[in-house]
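Sample intake sheet
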Amino acid sequence: MSDTPQSPPLPPRLIGCGILHKEVDHLIRKNGWHLESRYLDSSLHNHLARLSDQLNQALDQEAANGRETIVFYGCCHPRMEAILDAHHTLRTQGQNCIVMLLGHDWFMEELEQGSYFLLEDWALSWRPMFAQVFGENQSVVREIFHASHQGIVAVRTPCSDEFTREAGEMAEYLDLPLRWLDVSLDHLEGVLTDALTRKAPSGGG
């Protein structure tokens, strides 16, 4: 009597913020990683209860399917580490997605200059996001941003589409100067490689 052949295990699922979904998927394809992705809406950062609910739900679903997970988030929720522990998983290293993309030193250099980082996904959705978070009073929104930022830094990667117009409109709305940063995916690739290494059976997680 022959043994019934077993199906190969499902590849791990990376569950994360959709803010850099094009960049992450590009790196998965480039490296041929045995990894599938699933992204949550980047606006969830403004709704912590919804973020935890949706992340927990996604992790529960993958566990029910017998699939290992990696979380592509920074310290984006005060209970992030507790969520990871509850689901026996790990996340990419970094305070937030900008740190993962730029690296800590570059991020801090820009932060010290009062930069507000603008990625493509946010540039395409800033109007409804601002209305939801800050309200529709432009003078109030400007006051909030001017209190903590000296300018807008639009971050472009090799995967970015054109968002010059949208970035300009946001900078004009806020009455803040706009400049551009062209960033490679080298640091992000290292962050993902590290997470995959730690997730491997010999790496714990």
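Comment: The longest strand covers residues 151-156. The chain has a mean pLDDT of 92.
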